[in-house]
Amino acid sequence: MLIFKKNIMKKINIKIYTLLLLVGFSFSCSDDFVDVKPTSTNSEDFFNTQEDYEKAIIGAYDLLQSTYLNVMLGEIASDNSLAGGESATDTPGIQEVDDMIHTPLNAQLRDIWNWMFAGVNRANYILEFKDKTDFAGKEQIIAEATFLRAYYYFELVKWFGDVPLSVDERILFGEQFTIDRTPKADVYAQIEADLIFAANNLPYVQSQPGRVTKGAAQALLGKAYLYQNKFTESAAILDDLILNGPYDLVTDYNTIFEEAGENNIESVFEVQYFEGQGASFDCLQCSEGNVAVGFNGVRAYSGPDFSSGFSFNVPVQEVVDAFEAGDLRKDVAILDINAWATSTGATFGTGNEHTGYYNRKYIPRLRSNSAQGDRNLTNPNNYRAIRFADVLLMAAEAFNKSSTPNDAKAQTYLNRVRERAFGNSANNITATGATLYDNILSERRVELVGEGHRFFDLVRTGKAAQEIDGFEVDKNEVFPIPAIEIQLAGNRWCQNKGYSTSTCSTN
After folding, report:
1. Domain that holds residue 327
2. Residue finishing a domain among 363, 381, 399
3. Are residues 158 and 278 in the same domain?
4. How far is CA 223 from the centre of its chain?
5. Cα separations (Å) of 19 from 6, 8, 42, 433, 498?
6. Would residue 22 count as lying in a domain?
7. Residue range 5-19: mean pLDDT, rounded
8. 36 and 177 Cβ atoms separated by less than 8 Å
9. Considering its fold, how many domains does the chain have in total?
10. Do the Cβ atoms of 4 and 17 come closer than 8 Å?
11. Of the candidates 357, 381, 405, which is a domain's last residue?
């Protein structure tokens, strides 16, 4: 069953109850997209009070925490990092994605599919009964649920292309035999509609950090447009956000990824984690902590500031060298463990594909003695899902590529990011046209390294094949539909192109 857990979101002061959320089918660590076990409780027993809706929206937020895997694999699949781990056989699914040899049997890709669809269905459960009970403030809950559905679907379409689309209703038992994959253009159209609705019905500022805002909806809408090469539309919505929203760049880049820097003025949307409830490797999505942080940590580390982890997702020399001389972001983004050990006396071990570098943004910090649960699975580091710097760079790209380009504005937004990076304007970009475009994409790499965007940036800009070893054109732009899901659909679905020998394959 879908279970609402206590203390789902750090810093959101909502009392949370354990609740079985009956959605017609269930998800768990081992469940499939559509569980074949029907539920017996009638949904009329729920959504009768405001409290029911509040519990349900917390449950819809809860699946955001499982996106730790999306972030980590978005880096490992790119040219930014290697899988790492203890050995070449440590978590084979991660190693396969790194080497671009993943198949429809990949366990981690199946997790992404299952967890994102769990999020979709928790949101749809609310929207299915959005008119059942009236109370003050319901409009905002509906807008939040609509945003969350769009967010989960955006992840699904990024990873898998065409996916089943369900709007304002759950996929019920038995429907797995009749539901089809929806063309990604139609999925994107629904994402756009959802985000426009959310932006029109949410405030810029919420009373509780972590809750969706108008700015988050505008930013994700701009990103969805960008992924479809709708540059003019993207430029318009992102420019409105930049000019009218409450966001700005944090002056000191060094503070952004520390606990004291959570939910700051640069945070447009932030996934909340906390360390008060643990999990296990049998149910990683059950953790209230950021699991990726423990996976990213330095193996067998002993020393100041940080704690140890499993040494996955290790940056490569190429991304370290991508930082220009004088770029203040380099030491914040990348931990050079050899230099650190020399200066601090720290000790550490090495694992598979050791490069000497770690993703400093998201590695475990030292924790208090009161921290609970498995410390490798409950790290409290929030994920900065959308930062204002990302918004500025997306806007720069959109203005550069619009039907009527505005390179002056593109330069302005790009250079706002660079001026913080260097502490002056001496390194500002003055190029135009295609050269400016390349400058913007290069800036995205160093500004957002370690944050899970790189693979999808390379795919959407057509640069993946030239940058990622093993990447095959007309195949690796998307990932395979998990084999079990095709079987559950009665083998009616075509597999994504290149992942099957069957004549039934499509992108």
Report:
1. 273-381
2. 381
3. no
4. 13
5. 10, 12, 15, 54, 42
6. yes
7. 33
8. no
9. 2
10. yes
11. 381
pLDDT > 70? residue 438: yes
- Identify the three-state secondary structure at position 225: helix
Amino acid at 139: E
Do 289 and 192 lie in one domain? The reply is no
The residue that leads in pLDDT, 366 or 237, is 237
pLDDT tens column, 130-177? 999 999 999 999 999 999 999 999 999 999 999 999 999 988 777 778
Q: Is residue 109 within 8 Å of 159, Cβ to Cβ? A: yes
Is the Cβ–Cβ distance between 382 and 271 less than 8 Å? yes
- Domain check: are 184 and 287 in the same one? no
Cα–Cα distance between 35 and 26 in angstroms, integer? 6
Give a yes or no: residue 82 inside a domain: yes
The yes-or-no verdict on residue 199 having pLDDT over 80 is: yes
> Residue holding tokens 């996955």?
312
Q: Do 190 and 281 fall within a single domain? A: no
Q: Read off the CATH number of the domain in which 162 is found.
A: 1.25.40.890
Shared domain for 130 and 26, answered yes or no, is yes
Residues 183 and 43 reside in one and the same domain: yes
Indicate the pLDDT class of residue 275, thresholds 50, 70 and 90. confident
pLDDT of residue 507: 58
Where are the strands (E) in 64-118, listed by range? Answer: 81-84
The predicted structure's pLDDT at residue 160: 98
Whole-model pTM: value is 0.92
Alpha helices (H) along 362-425: 388-401, 407-422
Maximal C-alpha separation, the chain = 67
Percent of residues, the chain, with pLDDT higher than 90 = 80
